[in-house]
Every structure is written in structure tokens, then in C-alpha cells.
Backbone:
């Protein structure tokens, strides 16, 4: 049996790294869903509850990439990209509905130090994971892993926005969180459109 070439060995290492990044994302978000549910109920925070939904979307996107990395074929890859696009669309719809509802109702959440701490740390963790996925996806020539890195980046941006909104909410500026949500609606919609039109 011939020894694997350097290119083959490098690809195997990249695939292992891709799987490790996705499993790390899955693990973090599974723990996060529980923490966010508890803190959202405690503070009656729409932002924290919404970020929990975003974490569920990220879990789904990571599961799609794990599924895609384990197989081959353009048809499988196209389906995976469409599924990630659907995650972007769901995220954009959620943010639009939540932000509009919060502004219209004038909802004021209670202070949540635990929520602030978790979302701030999540912003840092997801930023690192997004960088790793984008770099690994580019090296592999895998648009699915690269695109899911953008989903993770949105997760990081949303975590930072929620953390900032919770801090400002504690200072009396309750409208800051839904305002940040509208910025992410535009970004998520653009990413979904790029994926569906093949400009990923």
C-alpha cells in the first residue's frame, strides 16, 4: 500500500480540524441553550430568549456541516448550502419580529448579570470558531464549512449586540438591543441571498 501523499495527509488534518470546530460549536451552544433559557425566564428578557433561538439555529447549521463533511458530491453540498441559507432566513425573520415587538411594546427586561457574562464570553468564543471555520473551509475548498463560519460570525455579532443591549438596558436604554437587531436582519438576509444565488 502506498503511503499517503502530503496533500492527502494535509486534507485529513483539515477535515479533522473542521469536525473539531463543529463539535466545539455544538457543545458550546447546547450548554448555552440551557443557560439562556434559565436567564431569560429569570430576567424576562426577550433578547436572551431570542439569543437562545439563535443558538438552536447555530446547532442546526453545525449539524448540517458535520453531515456534509462526512460525505461527498455536489448534490449533497448544494442541499447543505440551501439548509444553511434557511438558517440565515430564520434568523433574520426572528430578529425582525423580536425587535419590532420589543420596540412596539416598550418591553423592559430586568437586569441579568449572568446573561451579560454568558453573551460576552460567547461573542469571543464564536468569533474564534468563526475564524477557524472560515480559514479551514477556504483551505479545504469547502464552501459549506466556509459559509457556516459566517453563521457563527453572525452568532458572535448577535452575542455582542445582546450583551451590549443588556448592559444598556440595565442603564435605562431599553431600546438599544432591538435597534442592534435590525442591523443583523440586513446582514443575515444578505448572506441568505448570497447562498441561494450561488454567490457564496
Residues:
Amino acid at each position: 500500500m502506498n503511503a499517503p501523499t502530503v496533500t492527502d495527509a494535509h486534507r485529513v488534518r483539515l477535515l479533522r480540524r473542521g469536525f473539531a470546530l463543529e463539535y466545539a460549536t455544538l457543545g458550546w451552544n447546547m450548554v448555552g441553550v440551557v443557560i439562556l433559557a434559565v436567564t431569560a425566564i429569570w430576567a424576562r428578557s426577550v433578547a436572551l430568549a431570542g439569543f437562545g433561538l439563535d443558538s438552536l439555529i447555530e446547532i442546526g447549521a453545525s449539524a448540517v456541516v458535520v453531515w456534509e463533511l462526512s460525505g461527498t458530491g455536489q448534490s449533497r453540498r448544494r442541499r447543505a448550502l440551501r439548509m444553511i441559507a434557511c438558517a440565515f432566513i430564520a434568523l433574520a425573520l426572528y430578529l425582525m419580529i423580536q425587535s419590532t415587538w420589543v420596540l412596539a411594546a416598550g418591553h423592559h427586561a430586568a437586569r441579568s448579570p449572568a446573561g451579560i457574562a454568558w453573551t460576552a464570553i460567547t461573542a469571543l468564543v464564536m468569533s474564534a470558531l468563526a475564524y477557524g471555520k472560515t480559514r479551514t473551509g477556504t483551505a479545504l475548498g469547502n464552501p459549506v464549512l466556509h459559509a457556516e463560519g459566517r453563521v457563527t460570525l453572525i452568532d458572535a455579532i448577535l452575542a455582542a449586540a445582546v450583551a451590549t443591549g443588556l448592559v444598556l438596558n440595565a442603564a435605562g436604554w431599553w431600546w438599544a438591543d432591538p435597534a442592534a437587531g435590525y442591523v443583523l436582519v440586513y446582514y443575515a438576509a444578505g448572506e441568505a441571498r448570497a447562498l441561494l444565488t450561488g454567490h457564496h
User: Anything to note?
Assistant: DSSP finds six helices and no strands in the chain. Residues 126 and 196 are 24 Å apart (CA to CA). The two ends are 39 Å apart (CA to CA).
